[in-house]
Design a protein that fits this description.
Layout lengths: L1 H9 L3 H7 L4 H4 L38 H12 L2 E5 L6 E5 L2 H9 L11 H10 L1 H4 L10 H16 L1 H5 L2 H18 L11 H17 L15 H20 L6 H35 L10 H8 L4 H13 L2 H16 L1 H14 L9 H6 L1 H13 L5 E5 L4 E3 L2 E3 L4 E5 H5 L44 H18 E4 L6 E3 L3 E3 L6 E4 L2
Parallel strand pairs: 2-6
Antiparallel strand pairs: 1-2, 3-6, 4-5, 7-10, 8-9
Helix pairs in contact: 8-14, 10-11, 10-21, 11-15, 11-16, 12-13, 13-14, 13-15, 16-19, 16-21, 17-19
Length: 515
Amino acid sequence: MIRQGILRICSLHPETRVLLFNRCTSASAVQHDLKDARPFEEIPGPKPSENDPTFLPGIGNLSSLDFNTLSEALYKKYGKIARLSGVRSDKQTVYLYDPQYIETIFRNEGQWPVRPVFDSILKYRREMRSDFFKGIEGVKSTQGKQWHDFRSSVNPAMMQPRNTKLYVGPIDSVAKEFIQRMKDLRDQNGQLPDDFMEYFFRWAFESISLVALDTRLGSLQLNNKPDSETEKLIKAAQLVFRAMFTLDLPPYLSPSEREKLWNEMVECMDYFNEVVSKYIKESQDRIMQRSPDSQKDMSVLETLLVRNENPMYAFVMALDMMLAGVDTTANLTAKAAHFLSRNQDKQEILHEELKRILPRKDQEITANDLENMKYLKACLKETARIAPISAANFRKAPADMVIGGYLVPKGTEIIMDQKILCNLEENYPEPQKFIPERWLKDGDKLQKAHPFVYLPFGFGPRMCLGRRFAELESGVLTANIFRNFRLEHDEDLKEIVHGLSAVGNKLNFRVEDRS
């Protein structure tokens, strides 16, 4: 028996043998001997023949469900691991709802983790405009060494805390313009318009453009002409972001609808290329005029240009920031404002902290101020726990693995649902309640879940590249809002899913000035 086991192990793919003998103690508790694993086909889940209303009575066809509804249904029916095969596509997909299983995936993903990419963006950069991009395609569209080389080239500019701190003041100035728009747009009863969510998008676009392009575009101004560069860029960004998810994720469009949306996306991306190229050139000209002594406080864009001989690295990073850093940051910050508007006691605690650190409402926020805003950080963490912008993390199995006692073949798509885990009583007591105190290390309500339950920015080498800037932008705007105003809202949070989980409410807050 032992000899047969050894022979079987030796016959495995080298990557599989590495995983089998992995000595990481946290992962080895789940990584059983492959020879004892149950077959992949035995992982519980609906069969293709069950793609009808009988699987989910009252809900309907599996292929028509949004991600959150489908994933929740799988968890409730099948438990901590479920397989979806030949239902929404021809791919084999495994859903995980156990932090130990998730840890196994992340601990063994290797130097070059593989995750699904946006095929539409890749097609545009690799096929439609290959003569322009010349193989520099960014982190959202590539795998393996190509991904690693790009990520390594931009990490120093994007991930170092000192680079982020340079933007506290400029980001604060954008937030203060947002505060002025709140004052301008509220009616005589202090109520904001139904479409106020649009201004969260505009704020996020202005903030990330400041980082990506070294310029203020004027996204929050009230008198922009429809054909202005800024308005055309905003509309292009919104269309491209929607198109990425609509083209690449189920339910899929008809061929005619797909062709129409694809052509619109290409037109918008071409316009992005034109505008971003202009600002890259302006930044290059500024670098040429600077003395060597002034390079210690270079902007992110300047750092990317100086560190890489090929300016396409800076160009593609700027594009990716503007496409990935708008809807995500806007929705997280809007959700935080909404939760605080519905929990007045928590809002008062936050206001007292802000008033202590910022005695004047118009006071400029510093990096040190942000560091001391513990309750603010807790509010944002609690928002990301209850209503994460991305409900799950995605990977492909790096080798044959054993998850939950089942053999999962190399290349299988893995979906790790953090929204469900973060809203389970076993991980966070009273999970539906907004309790920022559960994140305060010096409080008596600190709650510690398994470290792989809460991963809003992912984990490992493919952790979100824009994390530090997203946290900076959300923190600064939230601080400005609740230092200046008391917010109220009549509805609980509603979410809509279009790839990401977005705010589905009309954010017509009632706004009252603070002293």
